[in-house]
Structures are given as C-alpha cells and as structure tokens.
Design brief:
Radius of gyration: 23 Å
Mean pLDDT: 81
Order of helices and strands: EHEHEHHEHEHHEHHHHHEHEHEHEHEHHH
Distance between the termini: 83 Å
Number of strands: 11
C-alpha cells in the first residue's frame, strides 16, 4: 500500500479568559498534559504579545481586556492555523455586538477550526444572555430567537431548555454528589443614625425614579444611586469617607458624624469570623463589591493575617511578586497563619479553587449580578470537596433595605437559570432550607426590572 502524507497543521489551543482563570489553566494543563506542556500568557502589551505569537505557541491564553487591543494580531495568528478557540466564562460576551469584547469574539468565531464556550452561569440576567454565546458557537445558525421574540414565561424557558439541550453539556452538582451548601441569611436591623440617613437616600431615589421611564437615558444616574445605597448598607463610615473624596458637595449634605458610624453588619461579621477562625480553627472568605470595604475588612482582621483580592491587584507569572493575585491566593491556601481572604466577586469569583482551604463564606453585600454571586459561591463549593464537609454561606441583609430588593431579584434570575439549564441544585443557593420546605459594582448589570424591584422595596 502507498500512503500520501498530508501536510495538515496540528490543532492549537487559544483560550480567552478572565485574568483569574489564567491560574487555573496553568494548573489544569499541567494536571492533564504534564509538565512538558505550558500555557503561554499573551500579556505585556502589543509588541510582547506579537513576539509570543511569532513563536507559534501550542497553548496560549489571553484576557478579554487584552483582546481589545490586539484583535488584529489574533486574527493574523488564526488565519493560517487550525485554532481551537475557547471562551472561558463566556457570559462575558453576553452583550454580543453591543460590547467591544463581544463584537471581537463573534468576529473571531468563523476563523476557528473548533469553538467551545465554558460557563458555570451562562445566563446571569435571562435567556437573552445566551444568544450571543450560541452565535459564537454556531454563526448564522443560532437556536435562540432574537430579543424581541423572547418570552420570559416559565413554560417558554422550559421550551428553550429543550431547544438548547443538543448544544451543551452540564454536569450538575447533584451528579457530582456534592452536598448542598447551607445558606443562612442573617437579617439585621440598622442602627438609628444609619436608618435615618438611609431613609433620606431611598426617598430621593424614589423621587428620581418616578419621573423616568424604561427608555430614559438618566438610568445611569439612578444606577450610581443604587450603588451608593448598596455601599451605604455595607458600611456607612466607608461610604462617607469615599463620598467626601468623590463628591464633596453631596457629602456635605450628610451628617458629619456619619464618618464614625460602623455598620451593624460588622458586629455580625465579627461573631461569624470569631466562631469560624478562633473556635473552629478554620479559614473564611469574605465577599464585598467595594474596594474600600474590602480594604477596611482586611485591616480589621489583620490579627488573622488577612489578605485581599480586588480589581486593583494584578496577576503575575513572577513567583517572587509577593503582591500579585497568585501570591495572595497561595498565601491563603498554604500559610496556616493566614485565616481570612477578603475579595470582590467580580475579581475573584471566577477561575479560583478554594474548596480545599475554606468552607465558610460571608457576603457583606451583593449586587444584581447573579453570575458573580453564584460563581463566588463555587469557589468553595465544587468538585473535589472532601466527603462529609459542610459548606456554609452567610448573607448579611438589612431589613427593609435595598439588600432585600437585591435578594428578590437574584432569586428570580437564578430561578430562570435553573429552568433553562435544568439544574435544580442552583436554587439551593438562593433559598434557605425552611423556604424549600414550605453586585465590579454591578452598575452594568442593572435593568429596568431591577429598578422596579428596588422601588417596590421602597414602598414597603
């Protein structure tokens, strides 16, 4: 027999992922393929990325942010190669052509030999979030109807789930035999000063909302007010100090002694941290959407050698960079004296595994981004959890506040995810056991229904 050897280029892997996920790709490639396979990080600016691509890497990874400035380099790299293109945390492109990173991802899709998307929470707002992700996978053959044709009724969500089934594989937590996390929502009353100031803030918000409609461009101003209300409920003292820097005129309208006000949530947080760290000898993860709050809590628990991760903490492949995200995660995992990690779900809610290190997580605040909330829970509740280990989730929630509006909207968004993904384990993360028996800052995630939920909460 005679054979013809075809000069077919080998398949190369190109991953687009958030910064945090780069760490996990390093670990997983090593675990699956061995030390001889390394992941080339496409970072450091255009010229460094150009040079790395010129070396024809077999496995390369680039962040969504870097992709914005190097689209032409990536296109050139893909044109004459068989590229397996993977979007990790693919809900990042849910806005499709309405966002620059979505537009670039969709433009690269036809150039790929194979395409895959990875996302634990692919539809943080609703079914429409899936449309751009499916367009990436199947250009021109999208099974999700256009936005105007979507019906949010429950039976339509179930029908959409059936349509999507041939296109995705999902391993549910029940299939992994993971015990359900134990959710505890701690409902707390504000102190008198904080309550009085908050009443004024929500009255102002209600007045602003009453003159708007769903198409009004002034929603951006309302969104800022929402973020302020959430931050105020997180810690009024931190809120006031931040406001004095960013908007001194507005800060002058608040009582001066507000700077000394400490959130009642912090007293409850102290009780949880004391029990977990001092009495049980365990480690704990604390979540907040705000850098100022994160840094305040890190300082508060300096006696436990606390470390923090937020958007201002960069990644690095230099093992000697003690201030990098990687080194802080390593310290929390390996240093027995480091008992507390304080993090932002937007910065640390993806691509990091902490389930062998901590089994307790506390949310000082949450925003309207359901994906950030669920992904952050998954840091300590995931495959590989030791048998018999309980995962405890604590949510600190002020009574009669925007915290309750956030809770209500998250429940609705997560219920929609459950319907489409056919994964009943998702709802275990939004309802306490007795219920089952009977928010970056999150500005970009706010929609009209979010605002409407807030106003309904204000009228209670």
């Amino acid at each position: 027999h005679s054979f013809i050897r075809l000069n077919v280029p080998k398949l190369q892997l190109l991953v687009v992922a958030p910064r945090n996920a780069q760490i996990s790709w390093d670990e997983e490639v090593f675990a699956c393929l061995g030390r001889q396979k390394s992941v080339v990080r496409l970072e450091g600016g255009r010229e460094r990325i150009r040079a790395k691509l010129a070396n024809n890497p077999e496995i390369a990874i680039i962040t969504y942010q870097q992709l914005l400035n190097t689209e032409d380099l990536i296109v050139e790299f893909m044109l004459d190669r068989k590229i397996h293109l993977v979007l990790d945390e693919s809900h990042r492109i849910k806005a499709g052509n309405l966002s620059r990173q979505g537009e670039i991802a969709l433009s690269l899709s036809p150039l790929a030999f194979r395409r895959d998307i990875i996302s634990g929470k692919p539809m943080p707002q609703g079914l429409s979030d899936m449309r751009s992700q499916m367009e990436f996978l199947w250009p021109g053959n999208n099974p999700i109807p256009p936005q105007g044709q979507l019906d949010a009724e429950q039976e339509k969500l179930t029908d959409s789930r059936d349509k999507l089934r041939p296109y995705f594989v999902r391993t549910t937590k029940s299939e992994l035999n993971l015990p359900d996390p134990i959710l505890s929502i701690r409902r707390i009353e504000m102190g008198p000063t904080q309550q009085a100031v908050y009443e004024g803030m929500r009255a102002t918000f209600a007045d602003q909302f009453s003159i708007l409609n769903s198409h009004d461009g002034a929603f951006a101003d309302l969104a800022k007010q929402v973020v302020r209300m959430i931050m105020f409920c997180s810690d009024p003292g931190v809120f006031f100090r931040r406001l004095k820097k960013t908007d001194p005129q507005l800060a002058a309208q608040f009582p001066a002694d507000l700077e000394l006000e400490q959130s009642a949530k912090l007293y409850e947080l102290d009780r949880i941290v004391t029990r977990v760290v001092e009495q049980q000898g365990s480690k704990v993860v604390i979540w907040s959407s705000f850098i100022d709050v994160i840094e305040m809590i890190e300082s508060r628990y300096s006696r436990f050698d606390a470390v923090s991760i937020h958007g201002g903490i960069g990644t690095s492949d230099d093992p000697n960079d003690i201030e990098s995200r990687e080194s802080r995660i390593k310290k929390f995992k390996e240093d027995q004296n480091c008992k507390v990690l304080v993090a932002n779900p937007a910065a640390c809610g993806e691509g990091i595994s902490l389930h062998q290190t901590a089994h307790d997580a506390v949310y000082i605040d949450r925003n309207f981004n359901a994906a950030h909330y669920l992904q952050s829970i998954d840091r300590i509740h995931r495959r590989g959890l030791s048998p018999g280990v309980a995962t405890n989730i604590y949510v600190l929630c002020y009574l009669n506040s925007i915290d309750e509006a956030v809770e209500s909207r998250l429940k609705k968004k997560i219920a929609a995810m459950e319907a489409v993904l056919n994964d009943s384990s998702i709802s275990k993360l939004i309802y306490e056991p007795e219920d089952l028996e009977s928010f970056s800052s999150g500005v970009e995630e706010l929609d009209f229904d979010d605002f409407r939920e807030i106003v309904g909460n204000l009228d209670r």
